[in-house]
Amino acid sequence: MRAAATPPLASGLLTDVGRQRRVNQDAALALDLPRGGLYAVADGMGGHAAGELAANLALDTLSQHYLDGRAAPPERLAEAVQAANLAVLRHAVGEYVGMGTTLLALIVDRGAAIVAHVGDSRAYLLREGELHRLTDDHSWVAEQVRLGHLTEEEARHHQWRSVVSNALGGEERVRLELFGLPLRAGDRLLLCSDGLSGVVADCKLLKLLLRRETPDQVARALVNAANDAGGPDNITAVIVDVLQDQRLPHYALPVRQGQGPMYVDALLSAQRGSSPLTYVLLILAYFTLLGVMLMPEYRTVIGLLGAVLLLGVVAAQRVTRARLGRSPRRPTPILAASAGREPRDSHKSS
């Protein structure tokens, strides 16, 4: 009897109300897909019932829209986030006026991860003992840290630390960040709400993520750490372990933009491409058609020559996009485990 093949991924999730809240307005998603999986965290806002509804509505819409989509995964994920935004916005009436939610979504497609990010939930990558923070918070205090007006420690305890500058349900067009990165066997990904990242210091996150335990066990350890630190907010952790190397998908991975979140239509236009090669294709098609019309006696030669040139440009465009997708910016580690030693805490315990 043949042994069952090892799955390429393993995942686990846990969401908890925390120690100081009565209602859990966080929601989480882990959905297996034929070539990977869809994972997400949403942190609702706008009152107990409204926040809970917004978070769950966002994840339900995200998953359904993604599964129904036919575009390449990066575009399909961005479109699914926009659909979730509209679903939240259209339900924000009556007693639910003002509701919204953060949304952090991750697609694993073969050997690549694609991240869509709105708000202040966070994505981390543990790779070879180094912890990389993949996302920047869309919040007032995060902006003050980037400007140098606050330190990370001051931001962690600031009275406005929960004020987000970007969320689903605020306007018709969502603003989001979308980027991809290649994955390796041994990688461990963490998606979490600020009830974890805002309470447990990065050095503690690294220590817990380094545990050789299942994703479910690590998610439980992370939630316990946040509760042990007071549990002031709802806590959610999604862990994804990459168990096998896989080839990269055929499409170019989206490159992270330096200007922060972009409106979804502008982001999709950039992803679909407006490169000079696209204009070359249009020009070649135009002159081929014009040549056939003006010199019909040579239409066969002109048509063949035009087709060869068009195919050559298309091939060059695919090679260029593939190279861009296979060499994204390397994540910068925020912490690394020293050989034989636990990482030193550079922050006070929260």
TrEMBL record:
Residues 10-242 form the PPM-type phosphatase domain. Coiled coil: none annotated. The chain crosses the membrane at residues 277-295, 301-320. SMART domains: PP2C_SIG (SM00331), PP2Cc (SM00332). Pfam families: PP2C_2 (PF13672). Keywords: Membrane, Transmembrane, Transmembrane helix. Residues 327-350 are annotated as: Disordered. Residues 341-350 have a biased composition (Basic and acidic residues). PROSITE patterns: PPM_2. It comes from the Bacteria. PANTHER family: PROTEIN PHOSPHATASE (PTHR47992). This is PPM-type phosphatase domain-containing protein. It comes from Deinococcus carri.
